[in-house]
Structures are given as structure tokens and as C-alpha cells.
Amino acid sequence: MAGLGCLVVAGYEGLHYSSWADPGAAGGMLRWGGAAIIFLAVPAAMIVVWFVRELHREAGKLGLSPMQTAMIELAVMEVAHEEWHRHNEAWSAELTQSVMGPERNWQ
To answer: Count of CB atoms within 10 A of residue 31's CB?
Structure first.
């Protein structure tokens, strides 16, 4: 809630900025924007930390060592990376075709 409030105030300060009427509004916008980033990033980081702890706790229940857990996490991240790469390539090709039309072979 505080992050959203800071974000609104930062937007107001940004819209209120004028180089001759209120030049200090730019600094206020940056300060309030920074506070919004902090207030919004902390809960997100806490959720990620909680999720990672739960993964490690479950891996410990399976009898895996920390190194084995890290290797499994690395493998899962690599698979997710490859799948995301394929998804982005397909989406890029679809967008290119929708804008440029079908690919032509000039021979």
C-alpha cells in the first residue's frame, strides 16, 4: 500500500514539474519514485526468498545434499531458459510475419 502511494505521489510530482515554476519537483519525483521501488521490491524479494526456502526444505526431506539441490535447480532453470527462448523465437517470427508479410525467396 505504501509503494502504491509513493508511486502516485511520484507521478504527481513528475506532472507538477516545471523548469521555471517548480524546478524542485524533479528531485521530489526521484525521491518518491525510489521509495516506491523499495516498498514494492521488498515484498517481492521476501516472496522469492520464502519460495526458495520451501524448495530447499522439501529437497532436505527427500534426503538430497545442498549440492544436489543446487544442481537440480540449475538444470530446471536451464530447461526453463531453453523453453522460454523457443517461445520468444516463435513469437518473434509470428510478429515479424504479421508486420512484414510472409518471407519471400528472391532467386
So the answer is: 14
